[in-house]
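Take a careful look at the protein record below. Let me know whether the structure tokens fit the sequence:
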Amino acid sequence: MKKLFLILLMTTIAIWANIGNIMVVKGQANVKRSAQMVTATNGMILLVGDEIITKIQSRVQVMLKDDTIITIGPKSSFGFDDFVFDGTTNSKVSLKSNRGFFRSVTGKIAKIIPDRFKVKTVSATIGIRGTDFSGEIIGDTEIIKCYKGTIYVEFEGITRDIKAGNMIELSDSGVKLRKNISVIREPKKVLYDDKETNGMTNEVISDITQEEHHLVHKLEPTPEPEPIVEPKVEEPIVEPEPIVKENQPIDENYPDDDYRY
């Protein structure tokens, strides 16, 4: 009986501890779990306390139980400190970006109780009143962008609202606010089944990490130069010399431009 109770207890804990899945892994990434490093794979279950660490030229997309999508860029570290989702106002999300780039499109919790959705960075806390935002840590500089809705950023005791299309840059030298940023399309939700992800990984991830990280703009194709056509020079018409047979007299009554044999 005790053994059965223990199995049921462990099963219940596992269900509640399961906060979501890794949907797509491109390149190489690890999950740090209880001081151990586990290779990140498609479909892998994530638990509270997990930290995803990506390597160079690697990216990971995660979907949490409330349909929040989080994409983690190359050479990044992103942690899942707390997650509770029961469909009520008791739900909450606490995430942490330790290094590199991330982008989040929030799910059901943000709609139920947005004030309980938080993302911490090295020096700031991001709260949401919107659905789509990103953060990037480069050295001692943090860049936080809002693509849709509104977010608020707490930094050094001051809270600032960042609306869609705007960004804030935090560093030791101060705070900079910028407007009219480039907005890259919202990431798609993907299934982690191999049959579903084949051929889709690049499409889904590239626009929210690689393009966002380096913001590569497509150049318009350079038109081929039209061939240079040299003007056609018409040759002058040369009137033929009148042919006169030997000993054939010329009739003086014919016009000058006429001739006969």
Notes: The chain is about 15% helix and 40% strand. Residues 9-214 form a domain with the Jelly Rolls fold (CATH 2.60.120.1440). The CA atoms of residues 37 and 224 lie 53 Å apart. The chain has a mean pLDDT of 77.
